[in-house]
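Q: Convert this sequence to structure tokens.
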Amino acid sequence: MNDAKPTLCIFCGSRHGAQPAYAVAARAIGQGLAGRGWNLVYGGGNVGLMGEVADAARAGGAWVTGVIPESLMQREVGHRGLDELHVVPSMHVRKQMMAERAHAFVALPGGLGTFEELFEIWTWRQLGYHQRPIALLNTAGYYDPLLHFLGDTVTQGFVTEAQAALLIVEREPDALLARLADALAAPGGAADLSRT
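A:
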């Protein structure tokens, strides 16, 4: 892997979801990050949106690293066509390894695991454990109800506007990648794995 290139950590569903737009967007993110010369680290599955983004990134020339717990190797069908596939003992180790390799984080549509990963990495940012960009791809308005609720958390005084503003939100893959590129290029946002 070329550590000099930014690596995106992508959280997304191990299913395709109800709308074809989700898979289209996942492939576009994979193609787009590869086109920028970036690397990908993700949950290591060969199914659902996970497989779509990994295959598209790999086809575009990106270095793709998967990290999957032993217990999910069969359920999420560990992807054997990656540059690296790490089979780890637990979800905790999976998330730690993904975070350590990432310069930025992106959540695509997904289920409970995707939500948990997004909120954990966002909490770590809020608490100062890292300064890396975090983004949400709101394909076909999938996250509209969540974004409405997050607005309520600000109104109700549990989340500050500054904390809420840490999340980059876009509906289109190209727009999302452009904003991430700007964030990575900003002072203090350069792709540097030594940043915590």
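The helical segments are 20-35, 48-59, 91-101, 112-126, 144-155, 161-164, 173-185.
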